[in-house]
Amino acid sequence: MASVPKKNDLYIEDEEAMARKRKRITSIGQWSAGILLIVAWELLSRWNIIDSYYWSSPSTIWKTGYIAWTEGSLWNDLLYTSGATVSGFFLGTFFGALLGLSFWWSYYYSRISEPYLIAFNAIPKLALAPVLVILFGIGFGSKVVLAFMMTVITTALAAYSGVRAVDKDLEKLLYSLGAKKWHVFTKVVVPTSMPWIVSSLKINIALALAGTIVGEFISSRQGIGRMILYAGQIMNLNLVWVGVVVLSILSIIMYFATVWIEKLLLKGRSAD
After folding, report:
1. Which of 86, 246, 247 is nearest to 151 (CA)?
2. 113 located within any domain
3. What is d(CA 72, CA 113) in angstroms, rounded to the nearest whole number?
4. Less crowded by CB within 10 Å, the N or C end of the chain?
């Protein structure tokens, strides 16, 4: 005799089908909006509604980008910028998380350090870019340092917020059962703070990219920022737009990469 599906099972199936439908419609909408924007940009440029000298056009940007890719150094510039961004992003996130989590170990240490952490976060780090470039040179290292500076404090503050959200009653319960402080830290503090740390990843990748580009604007031999600056100096606005589009694509790729990392780090927590 065939079993009759339970009401809860049907509800779950309906929810899953609705979620798939929403995801499909959202994806179609996103692609349609992007294609519509590109087509409108191209048509407005060809019909001289917008000045193609200043705003270029998708077809011209594609041709200029192809030339820069095959005959220029666009590939090397892309690797340089993405490498510095990713390096600074991971270093800033890792050490920022360690700094924020370390505040759990001592009440006085956290309270004494907190105002200085907030004050340092208020400092416009990009204003220090010329000093950092002079200090670390015009090479790859200064770009990594700038990306690191842009992300480390953001992550530290996020981790510190997670530390303050730890359930004190749960800590007392574990201590009463004989747990050591290290056990509480690894089993309670880190898992509780992880969503807070992960929430800063999407912000950090944009900050890291901004720090890298500013460093390349100031002084660099390679990078997309250097290419944009050089193109502006020689009044090649089409090449400037190539740099802008490449940076936009790079930022989108990095954003989705952080989304994947977020899902990986928080795997299984949604059910909890």
Report:
1. 86
2. yes
3. 48
4. N
